[in-house]
Amino acid sequence: MSQKVLLNSKEVNIALHRLACQLIENHDDFSETVLIGIQPRGRFLADRLAQMLAKDYKIKNVQVGHLDITFFRDDFRRGEKPLEANTTIINFIVEDKNVVFIDDVLYTGRSIRSALTAIQSFGRPKNVELLTLIDRRFSRHLPIQPNYRGRQVDAIDNQRVKVNWVENEGEDAVYLIDK
Amino acid sequence: MSELSVNHLLGIKYLTKQDINLVFETADQFKEVINRPIKKVPSLRDITIANLFFENSTRTKLSFELAEKRLSADVINFSASQSSVKKGETLIDTVNNILSMKVDMVVMRHPNPGACVFLSKHVNASIINAGDGAHEHPTQALLDSYSIREKLGSVKGKNVVIVGDILHSRVALSNIYALQLQGANVMVCGPKTLLPKYIKELGVQVETNLKKALEWCDVANMLRVQNERMDISYFPSTREYAQQFGINKELLDSLNKEIVIMHPGPINRGVEITSDVADSKQAIILDQVENGVAVRMAVIYLLASKIKQ
């Protein structure tokens, strides 16, 4: 198993600032916008962006939720192990809001398909956008593309993209891992 | 983590501590789901479940049916009173006929102890025991422990007394297994005639004085007197039972601590529990019912994920 650094801590930080600025361009003061981190790993990115918007860009009161998609996935009973659920924390209704889904890596697009179904339990959003830190090109199973992307990478099927966060792995970095 | 060690839920006896934890962790997520504006998830849309009730039930049947529907499973219901069982069909024939209609999972309540174990050996479907005679009622025990965990933070180290008709109760046996597995101390309390002779072999304490039992416990689980299972008279009169083993506000207030009151339902108000206790803050009877749906969703979800395609 070999691994290559795609983004180091500084580059992750630059990408996050760019993404935050792009969000501000489209969503102004975020009064009609909610950020939804897709569990399990999208929540780190969502929380980080919300912190950044509050601290560096003085946009307070950005609403952030964490959405678990386990029960909405289309591969129930297809794997070896049962799908393990995470926590959903959405303390608001998304009716008529601009929803931004946030995930670390966009690969086949199936998680986002599930998230589109799952979010309906919380109301009918005005529109839904997608932000991902890493967009794996040429690997989509569904017609889903991000509106905001940190970095586009070409990775072949037996490679894995892993995003580490200070909050869980002690560093901000993105790796390309050969299995 | 994280899959169940069993393919059927026949009784708590067959589960491990890890299984119970997995059910509870999954139930936490389903509890969040059933409190959403839209309470349904599509996980089990390709699963068909038959609810076979060879004995009467309101709560358990509704709870299972709701849990199945919240998971988007297809559901068929069967109750013995309206079926060919009356015409002399055997249990295996009945179930195999139903399974020929491509059913993946069976939830069964049956008056005979061991009916679910027997069925699991003879038919090719995942079986959930919804109560078999006076033997086990595993989902009730799971939801009882889940409710204690929710109310008190954990089950481990807690003193739990089960009061009433232990002899005829499947809830009692399943609860004893489940509570002991999670490290709780269990006591049973009731008239001597309603305590099984060898109950001590299970490692539980036995007490015939309700006041003493309540002073010892953190949680009291009040069971119903199962008149329908009593072929002879086990105590002189209902009035005397209520005086000796019924819980009332006065008795609760005389304790030097606040205990949690549970009841698996249906309640006989004025017999094992008075109305002022059943409707008091200390009673978590309706929380148990809510948790029942979440816990059953977790059990069905975890068992369904083991059904191969």
Explain this structure.
The complex is a heterodimer of chains A (179) and B (309). In chain A, helix 1 crosses helix 2 (42-55). Helices cover 26% and strands 30% of the residues of chain A. In chain A, strand 2 (33-38), helix 2 (42-55) and strand 3 (63-67) form a beta-alpha-beta unit. A five-stranded parallel β-sheet of chain A has the order 3-2-4-5-6, sandwiched between helices. A three-stranded antiparallel β-sheet of chain A has the order 1-8-7. Chain A has a single domain (9-159), classed as 3-Layer(aba) Sandwich (Rossmann fold). Chain A has four helices and eight strands; from the N terminus they run E-H-E-H-E-E-H-E-E-E-H-E. Chain A has 179 residues and is α/β, with parallel strands linked by helices. Chain A has helices at 9-27, 42-55, 110-118, 166-169; strands spanning 2-7, 33-38, 63-67, 98-106, 127-136, 148-153, 159-164, 173-178. Chain A starts with a strand and ends with a strand. Chain B is an alpha/beta fold. Chain B folds into two domains: 12-136 and 289-304, 3-Layer(aba) Sandwich (Rossmann fold), CATH 3.40.50.1370; 138-286, 3-Layer(aba) Sandwich (Rossmann fold), CATH 3.40.50.1370. Helices cover 38% and strands 15% of the residues of chain B. Chain B contains eleven helices and nine strands. Chain B has a five-stranded parallel β-sheet with strand order 7-6-5-8-9, sandwiched between helices. In chain B, helix 2 (59-70) crosses helix 11 (285-304), helix 5 (138-152) packs across helix 6 (170-181) and helix 5 (138-152) crosses helix 11 (285-304). The two termini of chain B are 22 Å apart. The chains are: A alpha/beta (179), B alpha/beta (309). The interface between A and B is medium-sized, with 23 and 28 residues.
